[in-house]
Write a structure and sequence with these properties.
alpha/beta; UDP-N-acetylmuramoyl-L-alanine:D-glutamate ligase; Protein-Tyrosine Phosphatase, Chain A; 3 domains; 15 helices; binds ligand UAG; binds adenosine-5'-triphosphate; magnesium; cell shape
Length: 498
Amino acid sequence: MKKHDLLVSSSVSDENLEVTHISYNSKEDQTNGVFFCKGNNFKAEYLDQAIKNGAKFYVSEKEYSQDIDRLIVKNASKALSLLSAEFYGNPQNDLFIIAFTGTKGKTTTSYFLYDILKRAYPKQVGLFSTVDRIIGPKPEDEFKSDLTTPESMDLFHDMRKCVDNGFKYLVMEVSSQAYKKNRVYGLQFDIGGFLNITPDHIGPNEHPTYADYLNCKKQLMINSKVNIINRQTNDYDTVYAAAKQTSDDKDIYRFAKDEVADTDFSIRNKESNLNDSVFTYTAESDKAEDLQDHSEYTYRLGLVGDFNELNAGAAITAAKILGVKNEVIADSLKSAFVPGRMEHINTNSHGTIFVDYAHNYASMKALLSFLKREYPASKVKVVVGSPGDKGVSRRAGFAKVLTELADEAILTTDDPGFEDPADICKQIDDQIDHTKVKVKTVLDREKAISEMIKSSSNDDIVVLAAKGNDPYQKTKGVDVPYASDPVVAKKILKDIGD
Ligand SMILES: CC(=O)N[C@H]1[C@@H](OP(=O)(O)OP(=O)(O)OC[C@H]2O[C@@H](n3ccc(=O)[nH]c3=O)[C@H](O)[C@@H]2O)O[C@H](CO)[C@@H](O)[C@@H]1O[C@H](C)C(=O)N[C@@H](C)C(=O)N[C@H](CCC(=O)O)C(=O)O
Ligand SMILES: Nc1ncnc2c1ncn2[C@@H]1O[C@H](COP(=O)(O)OP(=O)(O)OP(=O)(O)O)[C@@H](O)[C@H]1O
């Protein structure tokens, strides 16, 4: 605490207290435990409850109780991160950690790299993603994530499990919120990848301004030994300067699509269809040549979307830094699968269905532009909804992108929260130019999907957007089970004998 200038005061009467438990949730058993008082909504009664549940010590920015020993610190979430790392025996030192940040593509890139590394180093790779956390080789070591980047205590707990389960590598996503809330405070990454940044996550509960969002995101570069940067990201100069603060040029690799000067690797598309895309990855600098055992290599990526070639670029570069052979990378990428991200379902007579997590203007535009450009003769038909209680600007964004690029759309329910889904759909609908796109609203999501699939013919492309493979509808504070878009689509096809 002193080294990080966090200590305000300490009151320790029992120097021999053997701490067997740490917690930030007062409802848990706290026997011989240290309890952390942190968070915007913390209340003094949580500490009282923790003490009743056995806490022997607390860490806090304020002195709440003099009944037990305590450490008063300047910043409780930073203290939580540092002390959690210590409590779990600094598992980060036994893992090679590769982290990705970006407004879009974190999950996709993390899955690409996880699959590549798993082939190269079986039973040695963990994954902390928005979708799943994989902390060991057994089925019970794989579970759904609640946050993109877990709270620091949970992060170090799960890293410890990874190490105890024999893992040597960890691929993880780092959100801007992780830096804002100090979830990765004090952690140095072996490789940090910066994918892109566009205005998003700006609002009262996330980042007050774009400048704050960028500042949080660039922290990954400052805290990584080796950096991988998309040469075409917005604010490239700021991101590169952040990497340079702590890394030499030789440890900063840039990748770009098509003809861009001053990059280390270039991606050039050779062909694409509805199932995969083929692209070359070319070393453009001496240090890239040194990394790549061919100056150019051709990959086939089993996940379409030109943006996915960029995500693959980041994953390929990380794999190369780790010394993985091109053939292993190629084998993995050709069968790439990321739950709910550009999952495609081929039908016999109802066109091609894509399930994709695109859930704001920028990602829907990237997705629909790609489909329009590659398949100009096909109609693009979208089923989409927008969530309640957050991201209100997405509604206007969906209206704009549907007007610009869709042929037909059905507006439906997606995590309405405490709002009325009909109101949300109406807000989208009111901003659509109905002379450009045919739109209707069907609130029952399964019925909306069913209607769109049944009314589509073989040349059509059906996009089930924004929900990915979420198995719930967040409604009035409850996660109401929902089969997920891919499961619903496949069931409908089965029912109609396609
Ligand atoms: C605004 C925000 O970032 N909140 C996060 C933060 O909450 P917090 O530390 O402020 O805690 P709090 O909710 O105010 O609660 C106060 C404390 O009282 C404790 N408590 C509470 C009740 C009780 O009875 N007893 C008790 O001890 C709680 O355990 C907590 O420690 O720390 C919590 C974990 O300890 C997170 O769950 C929570 O994330 C919220 C729910 C969230 O969803 N955040 C989103 C915006 C987020 O972080 N998203 C990013 C992805 C964004 C992207 O795509 O880029 C992510 O990384 O997931
Ligand atoms: N590099 C990219 N650029 C633009 N759009 C992308 C990119 N990669 C993925 N997308 C789109 O964004 C959606 C979400 O992708 P992914 O889950 O990989 O990103 P993420 O950064 O983890 O997102 P989130 O923070 O919203 O969870 C995809 O379904 C796709 O439509």
